[in-house]
Design a protein that fits this description.
Structural class: alpha+beta
Order of helices and strands: EEEEEHEHHEEHEHEHEEEEEEEEEH
Strand content: 25-35%
Distance between the termini: 30 Å
Number of strands: 19
Radius of gyration: 21 Å
Largest sheet: 13 strands, mixed
Oligomer: single chain
């Protein structure tokens, strides 16, 4: 197996190590570093990165990784797992999406060792960690006051990436183009194939989203042959894939009366919400232009005209997708061995 060196520390085959990757000093002269957990099998195999909190207010991924690395029933049979629960440690400290320089870390890749603070952190994470990985799963949530149905976003035109996306087992897979400056785009330049997992809401733990995330990562590890397959459980239908999605926006400003929830099947011209005034009058309605499934929604019951309210993914058979999502929810109900 090739050498694996992070922050100047060598992790040998068969070792499990916790590493602190120095980032910078705060103005209090306190050292700030990115925590990294590395597990290496004695047998060669793929290197998988699981990262979270590249936006500092997206907390579900931190809990997903905590549960993953503390699980007692995971043993690598080959390859290497690199788990990074908090990439944007600055943001986590301040419960903020952004870096202290107000830049979005996920729009700052590949960055530069002599660039802005965000650019330096992006460059450090890319060169020290991502460049050494064959595959990666980046964990995200919706923005503040917005929830996402658990979903995988990936470039489905690449067959290997498509197979990984389907193997994860999220309710929905969305064909998503690369964005300039994103970690996913920079990783691809380094030949690291990455899935993006979106689930839940910023600054909140969502149990269903966390459970889907933990199970999905385990599914990927089995798919890559890094762990042995467990006893077969009831097989769920393959995740549905969507090649298009769009936001339905507020047509007026006012108080929101929701008519649909995440995972609901909606049909063309269906009312998604009523927008009311404080005295009970209905000012306007929000209507979907096409049939689909609600995969994201705004949670705050106040809205300004033009705001994005409902993210609708389009499928050939949206009714089947909604039924499939119900089965996924049932599959992830709590059991006695959740934390074993």
């Amino acid at each position: 197996m090739s050498d694996l060196v992070i922050a100047g520390e060598m992790i040998k085959p068969g070792q499990t190590r916790q590493i602190e990757l120095p980032v910078a000093k705060l103005y209090t002269d306190t050292e700030l570093s990115i925590p990294i957990h590395v597990v290496r099998s004695k047998k060669p195999g793929p290197t998988l990165l699981v990262s979270a909190a590249i936006h500092g207010d997206e907390l579900n991924g931190i809990e997903i990784i905590r549960r993953l690395i503390s699980a007692k029933n995971i043993k690598l049979s080959k390859g290497t797992l690199i788990a990074v629960p908090m990439v944007n440690v600055y943001g986590v400290l301040h419960q903020s999406r952004y870096m202290p320089d107000r830049r979005d870390l996920n729009r700052s890749f590949p960055g530069s060792a002599k660039g802005s603070l965000a650019g330096r952190m992006a460059n450090l994470f890319l060169t020290e960690v991502v460049s050494q990985c064959d595959f990666a799963i980046d964990l995200h949530t919706g923005a503040i006051h917005r929830s996402n149905l658990p979903q995988i976003r990936a470039d489905l035109s690449d067959q290997e990436t498509r197979e990984l996306a389907l193997a994860f087992g999220a309710p929905v897979v969305l064909d998503s183009s690369l964005r300039d400056g994103s970690l996913r785009a920079a990783a691809l330049e380094m030949k690291t194939k990455m899935l993006l997992f979106e689930a839940g809401e910023a600054l909140r733990f969502d149990e269903f989203s966390i459970r889907v995330g933990v199970k999905g990562i385990k599914n990927i590890m089995q798919h890559l042959g890094m762990t042995k397959k467990v006893a077969k459980r009831k097989k769920l239908p393959e995740p549905f894939t969507a090649d298009k999605s769009a936001w339905s926006r507020a047509t007026s400003s006012g108080i929101v009366a929701n008519k649909v929830e995440l995972g609901d099947h909606v049909i063309k011209n269906q009312v998604l919400a009523e927008i009311c005034d404080p005295l009970g009058g209905v000012l306007d309605t929000v209507i979907t232009s096409k049939s689909g499934v609600v995969i994201g929604k705004q949670n705050i019951p106040l809205v300004q005209e033009g705001e994005a309210m409902y993210h609708i993914a389009y499928f050939d058979e949206p009714g089947d997708v909604a039924e499939h999502i119900e089965k996924i929810v049932d599959e992830h109900l709590p059991t006695d061995d959740d934390y074993m």
